[in-house]
Amino acid sequence: MITRSSALLQRAESTCAEVAPLALQSLWQTQLSRAIRDPRELCRRLGLDDSWLPGAEQGHALFEVRVPEAFLARMRHGDPADPLLRQVLPLAAEGVPLPGYVSDPLAEAEHTPGPGLIHKYAGRVLLIASPVCAVNCRYCFRRHFPYSDNSPSRAQWELTLDILRQDTTIHEAILSGGDPLAASDRQLGWLVERLEAIPHLKRLRIHTRLPVVIPDRVDDALVSWLGNTRLQRVMVLHINHAQEIDDAMVKACARLKRAGVTLLNQSVLLRGVNDSVEALAELSERLFEAGVLPYYLHVLDPVAGAAHFDVPDAEARELVAGLREILPGFLLPRLVREIPGEASKTPL
Ligand SMILES: *Cc1c(COP(=O)(O)O)cnc(C)c1O
Ligand code: SF4
Predict the structure, then answer these.
(1) Contact yes or no for 346/296 (Cβ under 8 A)
(2) Which ligand places an atom closest to the C-alpha of 179?
(3) How confident is the model at residue 177 (pLDDT cuts 50, 70, 90)?
(4) Between 185 and 149, where is the model more confident?
């Protein structure tokens, strides 16, 4: 998840996206296509009273609702403060303009040497393997980009791959998006076969929220390309609250680990979701039980419509200081911000 170039993505869109006929869809694809996309249905299914509806519809008009059933099932019924629901429920506050909150907080079309490619940091490149997500998170900096549901075509990928083939300083390819695992296994298998043929590439990294929101995404077809590549594999999940980790998710993680994947997690610090030492500590503990190590804790990107999630820097530092007092060092995520133009994420 989390990649930041709209211009790039629009260029990378193609005319030959794969759409599997219904009968050939995997279970996860069916779940993805049946995700809730109607704010009225979201409110009804969670037993919210009608007072939430106008705000949900206003927010939805700005950035559409998308919530898979498997994620909805982990929310508490009738509780508008549920930490999972807060991440996906549109609010009227999203439409209130605030100084400093902009539609493209990380303005970054400058680092795009090829279609579907972002090269900002030394030794690693980001590949936009799918512009689509399985869940639409209200705090996402991508919320203002009107992506279509296409992925780059194979001809466009070949141009990008040529750049990787020629640049021997690149050792790691990061599949990002949108959510790269929203692409089909056929498409991903094709791409990884080409990546592993590049001798100087050592690692394949995947930034994804799909195994969290639809654990059935981790199926035989995924494991067959992911488990058999010569590249070392790292998956960076995106989980913000311990309640997101249910039995199905733990099983998916176990399966990924058996396929030789190192599992890490990045979170965003979000008001009303995980803005307490207790919530963050429980998240780290649950992650480790599932075989996942905390990696980054991002402060919010100042994207218009997400201001109600903001936690000030001073408070963020205090929270992490509190965490440090109660957790082993390896369960402490690194508190970072992304600053355009910097050579890495910036520690706070
Ligand atoms: C975040 C990011 C990466 C990965 O950074 P790490 O610190 O290695 O996790 C790579 N490329 C881009 C463009 C990024 O935004
Ligand atoms: S999974 Fe959520 S946070 Fe990640 S890119 Fe998609 S909408 Fe944004």
Answers:
(1) no
(2) 2
(3) confident
(4) 185
CB distance 227 to 259 below 8 Å? yes
Nearest CA to ligand 2 atom 8: 140
CB 333 within 8 A of CB 345: no
Tracing tokens 């963020």 back to the chain, one arrives at 316
Band of pLDDT at residue 14, cut at 50, 70 and 90: very low
Place of tokens 């296994």: 185
Q: What is the pLDDT of residues 223-277, one digit of tens each?
A: 999 999 999 999 999 999 999 999 999 999 999 999 999 999 999 999 999 999 9
Ramachandran area for residue 298 (φ above 0: left; ψ -120 to 50: alpha; else beta) = beta
Indicate whether residue 238 lines ligand 2 (CB < 6 A). yes
Residue 140's closest CA among 268, 39, 54, 313? 268
What long-range pairs does 153-158 form, CB within 8 A, spacing at least 24? Answer: 153/14, 153/15, 153/16, 154/16, 154/190, 156/12, 156/14, 156/115, 156/116, 157/115, 157/116, 157/191, 157/194
Taking the CA of residue 120 as reference, the ligand 1 atom at the shortest distance is: 13
